[in-house]
Amino acid sequence: MANDEDSRASAYKGQVNEILAGQTRDSTYQPPEAVELFVKNRRAVASVDQLEPDERAQFAAMWPGEDVAVVLRDGIEDEPIDLEVATVVDAAGAVRYRLFGWNYGVIWLMPPTGVEVIGYACQHDVEHWHADQRPAFWAMDRALARKDHGFQQGAKFCWWEDKCWDEIKDLPRGTVQSEPYIRQQLAGKT
Description:
Blueprint: H1 2-21, E1 37-44, H2 53-62, H3 68-74, E2 84-90, E3 95-102, E4 106-110, E5 119-121, H4 134-145, H5 162-168, H6 179-186
Antiparallel strand pairs: 1-2, 2-3, 3-4, 4-5
């Protein structure tokens, strides 16, 4: 049974990644400072002992009120989350972000330390919250397109759809999509 589930999950992830890779990225947008990023040290995580201290603190903040050891061991409603974690570095090897992903397209892009979320997705599409995200989305899309990293959870870091960015450009920070809820959650206020 577990092998059938693993095969289905793998097929699903492959299909999602094909769809995401096939999307047109037509845009005149250029980041103010083009930073090339690389996804490194990708690993499947099955216990909290496999997380570095900063990763453990970030993962725990994503699950307020939950025992993250139990979440990793038992999953949610007896379905494994299949957590994967990677480090995102720049061309000089400096750690820029930590990338978390789990089943059903949950993506968290976090700083190297702390719980200030850079990007969040449920069902693969990383939400547009404010214009400051766009250069990071541009760089993350390029990093994930390299395919040399092993990160399996598909993520759409959509920097190219100008209309999405135009829709939020004048909205107050902290008010768009799930950002208010996510920020409360990370602050332990849910």
